[in-house]
Write a structure and sequence with these properties.
The complex is a heterodimer of chains A (115) and B (113). Chain A is an all-beta fold. Chain A contains no helices and eleven strands. In chain A, β7 and β8 form a beta hairpin. Chain A starts with a strand and ends with a strand. In chain A, 39% of the residues are buried. The model of chain A has no long low-confidence stretch (mean pLDDT 91). In chain B, the strands form two sheets. In chain B, strands 2, 4, 5, 9, 10 and 11 form a six-stranded mixed sheet that branches. Chain B has a five-stranded antiparallel sheet with strand order 1-3-8-7-6, with no helix packed on it. Chains A and B meet through β4, β5, β9 and β10 of A and β5 and β10 of B.
Chain lengths: 115, 113
């Protein structure tokens, strides 16, 4: 089975621009979560979506938004990019059958560089 | 507010030695404690996880020890190998509400031959 897929792999933007990151969860998983990982730190929770509804939001500004589609894929949008938004953006998939507790499976991430 | 504290920040171990990483949490509502392994340029991969009703869990060379009263847990890597060189994150989450995983700050492990 394919794992979590994310696109694009790398992205370079300039300050003030907008960016859209995409994620496809593992087949059968209904939940997608987004995390931001700044170099040298642990991932920080941004959003969780389950069955197309936002279930949780981390401590991130309103410039960050997301949505989940009927096929359970998801997009993360970041507006008015700042230099500090440069990070690895991770998508995690969960909510599949027989998946214990809150076991989440991470994709390879999208490396965003803001110049 | 950091809810999961992890130490050490970095660790160098000889091949064949034991690597030990420690974590402490604050929120007693956490009821699932996974460890993730991350190689450069990759996403975190689930390594092993434990629930608070179990004091120890072993999978191959990897063992989690859990002390619920002290709110501490640790990862032991036995017979450490150069291929184990990676960054390790402890984490915590809970069954109620949404599935936010709170990560520690990470430990960069280097296993030298």
């Amino acid at each position: 089975d394919a794992g979590v897929t994310q696109s694009p792999t790398h992205l370079i933007k300039t300050r003030g621009q907008q960016v859209t990151l995409r994620c496809s969860p593992i087949s059968g998983h209904k939940s997608v979560s987004w995390y931001q990982q700044v170099l040298g730190q642990g991932p920080q929770f941004i959003f969780q979506y389950y069955e197309k509804e936002e279930r949780g939001r981390g401590n991130f500004p309103d410039r960050f938004s997301a949505r989940q589609f009927p096929n359970y894929s998801s997009e993360l949008n970041v507006n008015a990019l700042l230099l500090g938004d440069s990070a690895l953006y991770l998508c995690a998939s969960s909510g599949g059958p027989a998946v214990p507790y809150n076991e989440q499976f991470f994709g390879p991430g999208t490396r965003l560089t803001v110049l | 507010q950091q809810q999961v504290k992890q130490s050490p920040q970095s660790l160098i171990v000889q091949k064949g030695g034991i690597s030990i990483i420690n974590c402490a949490y604050e929120n007693t509502a956490f009821d699932y404690f996974p460890w993730y392994q991350q190689f450069p340029g990759k996403g975190p991969a689930l390594l092993i996880a434990i629930r608070p009703d179990v004091s120890e869990k072993k999978e191959g060379r990897f063992t989690i020890s859990f002390n619920k009263s002290a709110k501490q847990f640790s990862l032991h890597i036995m017979d450490s190998q150069p291929g184990d060189s990676a960054t390790y994150f402890c984490a915590a989450t809970y069954s109620g509400g949404y599935q936010k995983v709170t990560f520690g700050t990470g430990t960069k492990l280097q296993v030298i031959p």
